[in-house]
Amino acid sequence: xxxxxxxxMRFVLAVVDAGTVSGAARRLGVNHATVLxxxxxxxxxxxxxxFERTAQGYVVRPDRLRVIEAAEEVSRAAAAVDxxxxxxxxxxxxxxxxTSTDSLCQGLLPEVIGDLHxxxxxxxxxLICANAHLNLSRLEAQVTVRxxxxxxxxxxxxxxxxxxxxxxxxxxxxxGWLGFGGTLARSRPAGWLEEQVAGGxxxxxxxxxxxxxxxxxxxxxxxxxxxxxxxxDPRLRRLADLPVDRAVPVWVACHEDLxxxxxxxxVRHALLxxxxxxQARLMGGG
Length: 286
Hints:
By secondary structure, this protein is α/β, with parallel strands linked by helices. The chain has helices at about 5-20, 20-30, 30-45, 65-85, 100-105, 110-120, 190-195, 210-215, 225-230, 260-275, 280, and strands at about 50-55, 55-60, 95-100, 125-130, 145, 155-165, 165-170, 180, 205, 225, 235-240, 250-255.
């Protein structure tokens, strides 16, 4: 019976996640040849191929899916050990990785992080802009500031505030609508927009509120935007507020295994306080 080398398995999972050897190499910070060598070592040790090599990339063989599922369980278990150990006597120093959407990362969180740095100067904050939800169970990030109806599985946190939405256009803007793509298509404002636009005909579609704002400013059409990124823009005018029940909840959360880590707890509470203090601005009230 061959024992599994966890380090080689790590390379296998990186290729599964990235879909390509080059993508896995970038994620792991190694060169292309190293990834190929580690995958070959894993397959040689077990006497079977894991991947089918295609023109589109590396695809897991159908008869190896259970192998990947088991490897993912090992990865989650190893990550859980790291998370639990990181919480033992953790001082309020070190790195904290915060992830949020592009709207919040560009329009609000830099000033919040500035205040946080003054109160917790020993911490080094990494702000990761990602509209897609990062995998906190793998420590891609440790704290998330996430607009969502509810938190995902394995996350725990608190409702910080709500984000108000309204319809905006350029002063001489077109009458057509701009639509939502990507993760925005599943948001509360998307439901309201579908009710207004018969047949779903849009002048353009984007998966980013800042991009939609620029399309509005360029006169392409009207769009639903968060008030806090649009109200101060002289290129735009507000046409109508969305109903309050379409306001988007904003959560501050972390993985449930990290809830008691002192430095993360301090950051979460600081973020909650800072966002709560900006509730009126986020709702479009100044």
